[in-house]
Amino acid sequence: MMRHDDPVWMITGCSTGFGRALTREVLARGWRAVVTARDPAAIADLVAEAPQRALGLALDVTRVEQIRAAVDSAQQRFGRIDALVNNAGYGYLAAIEEGEDAAVRAMFETNVFGLVETTRAVLPGMRAQRSGLIVNVSSIGGLTAFAATGYYHATKFAVEGLSESLALEVRPLGIDVMLVEPGPFRTNWAGPSIKESALRIDDYAQTAGARREQTHARSGRQVGDPVRGARVIVDAALAARPPLHLLLGGLAVDAARAKIDALRADIDAWEASSRGADFPPEQA
Predict the structure, then answer these.
(1) Is the CATH number 3.40.50.720 carried by domain 8-252?
(2) Among 15, 145, 164, 219, which is disulfide-ready with 153 (CB 3.0 to 4.6 Å)?
(3) How far apart are the C-alpha atoms of 159 and 118, rounded to whole Å?
(4) Are the beta carbons of 88 and 114 closer than 8 angstroms?
């Protein structure tokens, strides 16, 4: 469990979106924050709001040496890290056949391996203090999938599986894990932050192509409010038992329930066949 009296939060990807909103929420509550971004100039205003309680650091989560240096600096300045928020990440638009290897691998480096390396750097301190909270910002796209974002979903499905295993491993050590699964929020995700393949195949115009256009058109008009979302994340972090899965936004709740219903329908329709794959009881 994260300590509730003057906790120290370390947040990645603070220049925009949830990272920025969450930093402001943490500082507004009078707590301390390690505020990170690839470009420190992009977070200078956040640090200036509470210079005694905010430590601004350059951090590209694809660079292991920067991760280690940031964690060391945080511990030297504040003595501990109570909550780590793995927020840094971005999306990529392409049909699966249109995907470009270099771009896809780069996204995995940030969304998955950067998250893993940052978590591994923080865990020794949390194990030593027998308390802490790891918040992994996933997506409703970590539970269900849509056309044009298959590679992004692959990164978030990976984060979901990693986080569920991690939760089982660290819970006995006093450390909680929380997956945050937002729906569409008014951040830069669908705007300046998103990347996409140059290749477009006509046969996917009505599926992946159409969703590319919908994603661009929705940017700046999403129903999710990052400020309210940040408040929900902090409130959940303060719960006696933080949820492993924290959905954000009504559309995320609806999409998750639709996925559960579809999964249940497949399980029920094919249950007899599924069970028939086992050895008969007399041969078991």
Answers:
(1) yes
(2) 145
(3) 13
(4) yes
Q: Which of 29, 227, 243, 28 is nearest to 138 (CA)?
A: 243
What 3 state SS string does 194-225 have?
CEECCCCCHHHHHHHHHHHHHHHHHCCCCCEC
In angstroms, the CA 110 to CA 206 distance is 30
What is d(CA 252, CA 140) in angstroms, rounded to the nearest whole number?
6
Please identify every residue annotated as catalytic.
138, 152, 156
User: Do residues 86 and 134 make contact, with C-beta atoms less than 8 angstroms apart?
Assistant: yes
Buried/exposed code over 265-277 (b: 16+ C-beta within 10 A; e: otherwise): eeeeeeeeeeeee
Delimit the domains of the chain by residue range: 8-252
- Report residue 244 as tokens: 């492993």
Q: Which two tokens stand for residue 210?
A: 């159409």
pLDDT tens-digit profile, the chain (284 residues) = 898 999 999 999 999 999 999 999 999 999 999 999 999 999 999 999 999 999 999 999 999 999 999 999 999 999 999 999 999 999 999 999 999 999 999 999 999 999 999 999 999 999 999 999 999 999 999 999 999 999 999 999 999 999 999 999 999 999 999 999 999 988 877 678 899 999 999 999 999 999 999 998 888 888 889 999 999 999 999 999 999 999 999 999 999 999 999 999 999 999 999 999 999 988 76
Q: How far apart are CA 231 and CA 24, in angstroms?
A: 10
* Cβ contact 183:250 at 8 Å: yes
Amino acid at residue number 64: V
